Amino acid sequence: MSARAAYALLERELLRFFRQPNRIVGAIGQPVIFWVLLGAAFRGSFKAPGVEETYGQFFLPGVAVMIALFTAIFSTISVIEDRREGFLQGVLVAPVGRSSLVLGKILGGTVLAVLQATLFLLLAPTVGIGLSATALLGAVGVLGLIAFGLTGLGFSIAWRMDSTQGFHAIMSVFLLPLWLLSGAVFPASGAHPALAFVLRLNPLSYGVAALRHALGMGGAAPGLYACLAVSLLFALAMFALAMKLAARPAKGDLQ
Amino acid sequence: MIETEALVHAYGGRRALDGVTFDVKPQEIFGLLGPNGGGKTTLFRILSTLMRPTGGRARVVGHDTVAEAAAVRRGIGVVFQSPSLDRKLTAFENLYYQAQIHGFTFKETRERAREMLARVGLSDRAGDVVERLSGGMRRRVELAKGMLHRPRLLLLDEPSTGLDPGGRRDLWTYLSAIRDADGVTSLVTTHLMEEAEKCDRVAILDRGKVVALGTPAELVAQVGGDVLTLDTRDPEPLAKEIGQRLGLAAKAIEGRVRIEQASGHELIPRLVQAFPGRIDAVRLGRPTLEDVFIRKTGHRFWSEGEGGALGR
After folding, report:
1. A252 pLDDT above the threshold of 60
2. Nearest to B88 among A2, A16, A93 (CB)
3. In a domain, A255, yes or no
4. Strand, helix or coil at B106?
5. Between chains, do A89 and B84 touch, taking CB under 8 Å as contact?
6. Which domains does chain B have, with CATH numbers?
7. Per-residue pLDDT averaged across A69-75, rounded?
8. What percent of chain B has pLDDT over 70?
């Protein structure tokens, strides 16, 4: 593992991102539109046991996580592009372990995700959620944990793919439902017991709940420490998976 | 610099490499010549540690490519046939990050990147995004990227792909310059005869085997005699008639008639008199590596369907 190499790859991720402004629009635009539209749509009708908030308030952490998810997806799609455009082979013949590549890529995605999701959270006061410095700091920490796990997951999916279309298919049938069923869009308390059960199994639910805790939104279950523990475990597990997959030579390493 | 021992690589049942043994000496430009599909790229990938051989072994810069891959990577620079640049970054940034990945300090990194861009004559384009550079300039950035960490051995896969004649000349001037000034050894794969002829030594690879190895002059001397090439509108019938009327072994190859013959100059007046008006031009020359290839393999360099683009 070379920290310098990992850092170089991280910096490159950021540079590439800021050179393609449409990626910012892609990752923030759609979630914000969802938030504004659904917040307005469920304004009078949203009601769930144990939830006091308006839908705009309830949905806010969920949208932040959606932004983290979208950014993670966009960053890891670049794994496929790097492979196809040949950049990857130059890294693979350099005298650094592949672990540096994995770490640089995942950290790059994480930084971008936290940055954008935090930018979005600054809108919280517009729906009446006060943001103290500690709340914001806590939220950044939780988002970092969530984004690291999601980027690790994205990397593991992207590593062996040879087309971005394939990734989009996985995104629709796996990654988006992962988010839909995380307590981001609707609370477990009012849902069908079967759905509530799925929510409890979904590791992302704990990330969303942790973010609620950090923002001081009451009624989130389970407790903060349980949420942090599950999120940390998920992040580590995804990192380990990405490392394991990348360590083995893939057919597509070569052009 | 490179030693291979009975390298074998099989994809499923097909043997891309079938017992390849050769050495590359320090400070030479070594050419691996062969038709596409002859095993060059497979060999290249094994030497650059991207692939493990299924049999035999290879030592590169004194280290085993499988057991000591990291040590090999420190000693080699690799220029791939397909581009390996990040098109969204500038030429300088591409070199900058590559140097970082190689573990140089920030100061060294900047110096190396600037120095290498100057060496390939791109200092004034350092800040241009790669997308906006011409194909030839991109190849030069690739070359700079491969040489960034001052490797002792440079591996280049079909380096002249996409270069114009001027760019090709520059490439060979550069390879000779780093050989003479810095003692860098180069291994170049190519499917172009004229390129292989510029190498210090050449191995001809066909169907996964080394069929000839030596300096271009040595290889050509094995064929011996002269080669007469006739430009004509009807190569096939003409070759046949030359065989029948003059008893010579004439072959129609790539739109021309070729005759291998000692003292070829004596043949020219006889040919021109025997076939008035049918020969547009006669060229008398020494045998080329292509003749070596035909002699060693019994078939043409371009297998069926491959030479079409060249107007055969």
Report:
1. no
2. A16
3. no
4. helix
5. yes
6. 2-219 (3.40.50.300), 222-310 (3.30.70)
7. 88
8. 95
